[in-house]
């Protein structure tokens, strides 16, 4: 036994470092997909952990959140993706990228996260969704992945309160009207 919770914590956990450099993605798994595609989800987890098997120095890791956010909760008038209410868990996929990596290496790792790791998660739970604050903003079909059927309402609100598109953030309502050019140094309105 430990005299205090803090003493127990120190005994149970390794020393933690502050901060790391990694790309993050992830996916929320729908109840039905978990019940009917358990093997597919396990294979997706394996892909996240070893996204490039021929390169053992390239590895991913996962942070999992178990929850059941919508059970018994009435539908609210919010921007929450409708699939969120049927989610069993949310897995954050992370891919370490060393500080000082070349732009080409970073682009390769972003491609690996988006098109291998996150793609495996999306395919394993086709009824799922993801959470914009802890996901890959470069995933295909981000409007549906982050916002689902709420997206048109959010884009209309964006047009009402920011008609000139002054406020920009990747993968948020209305950003498809803009294009980042010249290696990410300029933002231009799409014609």
Automatic annotation (TrEMBL):
InterPro entries: BBE, FAD-bd_PCMH_sub2. It comes from the Eukaryota. GO terms for molecular function: flavin adenine dinucleotide binding; oxidoreductase activity. Residues 130-168 form the Berberine/berberine-like domain. Coiled coil: none annotated. Transmembrane segments: none annotated. This is Berberine/berberine-like domain-containing protein. It comes from Parachaetomium inaequale.
